[in-house]
């Protein structure tokens, strides 16, 4: 091992949280290194290619209000495209296919009344949640003592309401309604701007995506940091004493005044801390594990479903695929459908079987033309060899009130960032950026003052 390199701050993780923290510190004149365990930057954003079109295998959409991530994308010259949502959406529930307009599917009058009642109750409760400190919310203990499923039982949710709520927890967290506490669900609804905003394309969380892909934003943003970013550098150990921190990878040691760890809460467990983390933080790591989610993309000559008046958006409670979206680059083709897949019945299979499952379901949803794809790819986040998981932590009953208070509490010289530690927009790319900004501000306040570099000077 070479002599340790010394910087002001070591940042662990080159997702949006880590890259933002690094930029903010560099802008203020501090020296940083970013250590990333994977061979690429971006973390939970990752680009794939199908039929010559770049697609987002992980994080995809931004809402209009996502100013923080949008500012970075603007800085590096990436451009949004509205999520295609024209036409009717498709619903496959209990073996029956139908189409509908708007956010809530066309249901029988009784099912619609039930769904609307549950949604209104969730929105009302979500308004009482303190997103920054959910354990301080007025009824936190009571709301955290029950799973979403337990609450749906209590509210006499009908089968259809349960099926739709399961689709929501599968896509937001990568889990079932029984796995997540009501409090965590409410925090997410609040952080995502309300139930409709969470699920809507037009004007909601799925409003727009990036032509160049979201990982391309991260790649370009990381390139501005030059050789401060070290891929293939999993951090194994962080030792701290009164003088600073020593951060070990397999091949190098870095010394710094402070460290900012931006991994998902679960992946903090991959690092040995000396002195050891307090019991409450260890409990957080144990109980805030990521869910699991997989995505498939199927390409066709043209987005043929549009000619049938369909938006390419579908919800289904049967089989592997549970949501689809149209992410075609143009009406002239190729047509590309993005399908969210349930990892429990998807990841175990070989690629050919996975493809056959997805194509069969798309054929049920969109007709015989869907049986003739020209290309296919998928990505199973829970089988990644490093930092595996899904979109967000599955936070079960009691885990927020027991451990949530330490989400951002520094461990001496080690500070925490990552989308999980954000308040507003927690669980999104925008939340990741906001968390990186917060951690960088907090650490900069502890460091000796410097002459801020102008932006051009900082990166030269
Ligand atoms: C399938 C999927 C769909 C999603 N859809 C959306 C969406 O449409 N819109 C949206 O806003 N968000 C979406 N998200 C969530 C969004 O991608 C994340 O919130 C965001 O990218 C998290 O950024 P982060 O920097 O906090 O964490 P990450 O991106 O996870 O970055 C943390 C980094 O730390 C690294 N790391 C872990 N352990 C170590 C270690 N020991 N040493 C060194 N490095 C380490 C990891 O490899 C990773 O690169 C989705 C996520 C997934 C998986």
TrEMBL record:
Pfam families noted in UniProt: Amino_oxidase (PF01593)
Gene3D superfamilies given in the database record: FAD/NAD(P)-binding domain (3.50.50.60)
GO terms for MF: monoamine oxidase activity
InterPro entries given in the database record: Amino_oxidase, FAD/NAD-bd_sf, Flavin_amine_oxidase, Flavin_MAO
Residues noted as binding substrate in the record, renumbered to the chain: 340
Annotated residues for binding of FAD: 235, 420
Keywords: Oxidoreductase
Cofactor list: FAD
Enzyme Commission number(s) from the entry: 1.4.3.4
Span of domain Amine oxidase: 16-443
Similarity remark: Belongs to the flavin monoamine oxidase family.
Name by which UniProt lists this protein: Monoamine oxidase
UniProt source species: Flexivirga oryzae
Taxonomic path: Bacteria, Bacillati, Actinomycetota, Actinomycetes, Micrococcales
């Amino acid at each position: 091992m070479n002599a340790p390199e010394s910087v002001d701050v070591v940042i662990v993780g080159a997702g949006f949280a880590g890259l933002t923290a690094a930029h903010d510190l560099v802008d203020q004149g501090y020296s940083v290194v970013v250590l990333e365990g994977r061979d690429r930057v971006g973390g939970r954003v990752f680009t794939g290619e199908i039929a010559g079109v770049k697609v987002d295998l992980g994080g995809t959409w931004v809402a209009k209000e996502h100013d923080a991530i949008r500012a970075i994308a603007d800085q590096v010259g990436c451009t949004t495209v509205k999520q295609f949502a024209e036409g009717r959406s498709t619903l496959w529930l209990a073996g029956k296919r139908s189409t509908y307009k708007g956010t809530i599917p066309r249901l029988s009058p009784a099912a619609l009344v039930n769904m609307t009642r549950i949604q209104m109750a969730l929105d009302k409760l979500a308004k009482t949640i303190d997103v920054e400190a959910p354990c301080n919310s007025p009824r936190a203990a009571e709301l955290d003592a029950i799973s979403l499923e337990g609450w749906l039982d209590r509210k006499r949710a009908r089968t259809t309401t349960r099926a739709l709520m399961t689709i929501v927890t599968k896509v937001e967290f990568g889990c079932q309604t029984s796995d997540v506490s009501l409090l965590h669900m409410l925090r997410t609804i609040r952080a995502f701007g309300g139930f409709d905003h969470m699920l809507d394309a037009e004007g909601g969380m799925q409003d727009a995506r990036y032509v160049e892909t979201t990982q391309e934003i991260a790649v370009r943003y990381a390139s501005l940091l030059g050789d401060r970013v070290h891929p293939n550098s999993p951090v194994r150990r962080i030792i701290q004493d009164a003088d600073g921190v020593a951060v070990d990878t397999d091949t190098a040691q870095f010394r710094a005044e402070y460290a900012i760890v931006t991994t998902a809460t679960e992946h903090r467990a991959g690092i040995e801390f000396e002195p050891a983390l307090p019991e409450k933080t260890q409990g957080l790591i144990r109980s805030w594990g990521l869910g699991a989610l997989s995505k498939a993309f199927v390409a066709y000559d043209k987005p043929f479903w549009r000619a049938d008046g369909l938006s390419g958006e579908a919800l289904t409670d049967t089989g592997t695929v549970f949501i689809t979206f149209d992410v075609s680059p143009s009406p002239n083709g190729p047509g590309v459908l993005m399908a969210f897949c349930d990892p429990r019945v998807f990841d175990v299979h070989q690629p050919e079987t996975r493809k056959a499952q997805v194509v069969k379901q798309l054929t049920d949803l969109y007709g015989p033309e869907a049986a003739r794809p020209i290309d296919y790819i998928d990505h199973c986040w829970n089988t990644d060899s490093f930092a595996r998981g899904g979109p967000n932590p599955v936070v079960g009953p009691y885990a927020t009130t027991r451990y949530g208070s330490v989400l951002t509490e520094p461990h001496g010289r080690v500070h925490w960032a990552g989308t999980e530690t954000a308040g507003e927009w927690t669980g999104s790319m925008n939340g990741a950026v906001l968390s990186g900004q917060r951690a960088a501000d907090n650490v900069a306040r502890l460091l000796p003052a410097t002459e801020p570099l102008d932006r051009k000077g900082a990166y030269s």
